[in-house]
Amino acid sequence: MVRTRPNTRLHAAARADLMAGASRLRLVSAPVPAPSPDGAGVSGAHPVPVLDTSLEALYEQYAVYVGALASRILGRAAEVEDVVQDVFASAVRGLRRREDEREIKGWFAKVTVRRCLRQLRLRRVWSLMDLAAEPSYDRLPDPRAGVEERQLIVEVYRALDRLPARQRIPWTLHHVEGERLEQVAELCGCSLATVKRRIAEARARLRSHLGAPDHA
């Protein structure tokens, strides 16, 4: 596999701002949803009652959210559909006792993070066995992003692919998804101190890979 060196023409300030948490990557808000479990598309035309926990209703309401979260964590559009399907397969058993929208959305976030962690670990195994597919980041940037920002997104996700999953996920949830540190800790199932340490470690590695200034 040929590795591309970081683009030295990228604006240094943009990288420094990202490392310092002063900016977020402008990614596509959500990928195209995968087919629903019953074969129907996700239209979004008719609001779904919050307490309707049938699989079809849950898919209608949360598929785009799950897909967007998985896409930002994984950075690989080809892997998102399988993650979405697995998450909703788990929803049949896991959501029977959930009573409000915030609780349901939080459940989907936790399960999606857990499933993405497993996917990243599988990807590393495939890489060691030389079975990993060549990554493509073309579908990640928002179409409104400028050329320089698109280059930055590609370089960041290429660098993220070199990080351990337990560092990558907290950093992505905080700096890309925009979650508060307390929420990141909850989603990752660890303490706030652990999340801060892992994000700091990820930031240091990314700074090294991207060539961002060390004072950020």
Q: Could you characterize the architecture of this molecule?
A:
The protein is mainly α and 216 residues long. The protein has 2 domains: 43-136, Rna Polymerase Sigma Factor, Chain: A, CATH 1.10.1740; 145-216, Arc Repressor Mutant, subunit A (Orthogonal Bundle), CATH 1.10.10.10. The chain is 58% helix and 0% strand. The chain has 8 helices and no strands. The protein has helices spanning 12-19, 55-74, 77-94, 101-128, 147-160, 165-175, 181-188, 192-210. The radius of gyration is 18 Å and the shape is globular.
Please describe the biggest sheet, giving its number of strands, its sense, and whether it closes into a barrel.
none
The chain-level structural class is mainly alpha
Rg, rounded, reads: 18 Å
CA(first)-CA(last) distance: 31 Å
Which class of the largest domain in CATH terms?
Answer: Mainly Alpha
What is the averaged pLDDT score?
A: 76
Per the CATH scheme, the topology name of the largest domain is Rna Polymerase Sigma Factor, Chain: A
